[in-house]
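quick one before i forget lol
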Amino acid sequence: MFMHVEIIYPAGFCYGVSHALNLVYETRKEHPSTPIVILGELVHNEIVSKELKAQNIETIKLDESLEENLQKLDKSTIIFFTAHGHPKDYDELIANLGFKSIDAICPSVKANNERIKNSLDPKKDTIYIGKSNHPETLGALSIDEDILLYDVKTKEMKDKANHRKAIVFAQTTLGEDTYLDAIETLKKKYASFDIAPRACQEMMKREFAVKNIPPTYDLIYVVGSKNSSNANELKMIALNEHPQSLVKLITSKDDIVLEDLKDKKNVALVSATSSPLKAIEEIKQYLENL
């Protein structure tokens, strides 16, 4: 079986993911025997999570038992906040419990949150476009209780508009089409409508690359985790832009179904921002050696 396999660039980790991982791994080197715990997934990728666990870096789920689970930890434990950002009340919780914490927030997410904080205006609605259950969204909404959420899943704003003017921000991992659809809906609700600049260009670069995959590619693998917002956005874009191609979301070569490869000649490998380049290269090598 001969297949032409091409990695669609940019591929591998984005800067925000690399930044978070470097912080954690440097901390492990400096404190080889100190317990390290991450509040939630540092990044949304199973391969990365396994590598962290192999270095005795544990993860605590962000659920109703969070405080109870934290209280069970040794007080020497270093707590990491994830790359996605976090609700601000977590800072108070960690401080009150006496733990040292390190924030691995993506610089683009941090910049976006700072813009939101500095743009709050009692005469305008501040609207955040995002996915309601995503940690980045939860972090942004915690900046101020009056921030309104436009949920891209339901295509509804959960809270009623209070003013005739609005300023709009967005989750960094949203695809351009999802974002623009939300913008068009919101524009109809306000007499005056300001749109803040998008905080991260990385998603837009990858989206542009996916849209420009030649039609000769009959199989497109989006390499990423099923719980990655970024990976699912790229998959949706590939499905919409390339109806002639088979589009699959996989995390590693182990997810490849041989039946999907039947009669396929050209394969494109698209990378989510939290996917290791090594995993993508392994998929390419596996397919070329079939």
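fyi The two ends are 6 Å apart (CA to CA).
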